Amino acid sequence: MERIKLAIEKAKAAEVDSARSDAPLLRRVRGSEASIGESSSAIRREVPLGDASPVHYTQTAVVSMDAAHLDRHRVVSHQKTHPASWAFDVLRTQVLQKMDENGWRTLAITSPSVESGKTVVAINLAMSIAQQTNRTALLVDFDLRRPSVARYLGLNRSLSLNDFLDGRANVGDALVNPGIERFVVLPTNQPVTGASEVLSSSKVGHLIDDLRERYSDRIVIFDLPPVLAADDVMSVLPRIDCVLMVVGSGVSTENEVEEAMSRLSKANLLGVVLNKDEAPVQNAYY
Ligand SMILES: Nc1ncnc2c1ncn2[C@@H]1O[C@H](COP(=O)(O)OP(=O)(O)OP(=O)(O)O)[C@@H](O)[C@H]1O
Ligand SMILES: [Mg+2]
């Protein structure tokens, strides 16, 4: 725990591009085995109906999700009564403020090491953004080595990003709406060979541009691999407006966090999320 706190202090002091971004946003997302994993009621009941003009997914496939499955994978943002849901809403507000200030619409989520909670944060943050009636959120699984968004959401679609990359499908055919308004997912079903080269290809470059430009109210979140695992993150990051780093408490060493921060030095770092931390919620702000 201590080593993470030290690392976070250094992260706080790390240089960011001050012309385009203020000091890094730091936010703890508290979540223990006990707090993320409680039972939930049906998703439909928990999601506020909100918008006066509901979105109709004429082209995007709509599937329903299983509440118990989501609970098991710590997906909680669809339940406003869940104790961890508030943390993602606060994170959402801070992230959107920073992105709006700078005109950014694409956000990468990474971490120094594996198993830090990137995918859990990416899914919950995207869901929380989608609950704002003036936004849509698109979550793209760009962890081409260990894709897990579809598994965590319980999606079982035959078409995915793999088919688009292999030229077998249009991207629109692989998009799916998991039963929550304004929330769309581009899943990856299988690990991709040559992930780094694929992420730096012009095909992926055009895809990112297309996903960003199609709707002006859309925030696109890319779930990436760990920054220290390979050069995938460095390959794709220049094409994404800004990045959020998830540090798992007790997962990464101070040196790993430092090294990851230095590799992100050219990117627009929005901030660091301290995940899996057991500190009391009332002390959770920096
Ligand atoms: N706040 C939390 N509290 C407890 N466990 C958590 C928390 N966040 C995530 N986990 C658990 O940690 C594990 C790793 O989470 P997740 O898959 O989101 O991490 P990741 O950084 O995306 O991993 P990978 O590097 O493999 O992609 C999962 O079992 C997840 O349920
Ligand atoms: Mg992941």
Entry keywords:
single chain; 286 residues; alpha/beta; Rossmann fold; seven-stranded parallel sheet; two-stranded parallel sheet; 35% helix; globular; disordered N terminus; disordered C terminus; binds adenosine-5'-triphosphate; binds magnesium ion
Kindly report the name of the CATH homologous superfamily. Answer: P-loop containing nucleotide triphosphate hydrolases
| SSE class | alpha/beta
Q: Supply the number of structural domains.
A: 1
Number of helices: 12
- Percent of residues in beta strands? 15-25%
* Overall outline: globular
Low-confidence runs (pLDDT<50, min 5 residues)?
1-11, 13-25, 30-56, 280-286
Q: Write the H/E string, N to C.
A: HEHEHHEHEHHHEEHHEHEHE
Ligands: adenosine-5'-triphosphate, magnesium ion
Largest sheet, strands/sense/barrel: 7 strands, parallel
Q: What Rg is obtained from the alpha carbons, in whole angstroms?
A: 18 Å
From the coordinates shown, what is the CATH architecture?
A: 3-Layer(aba) Sandwich
First-residue to last-residue Cα separation: 16 Å
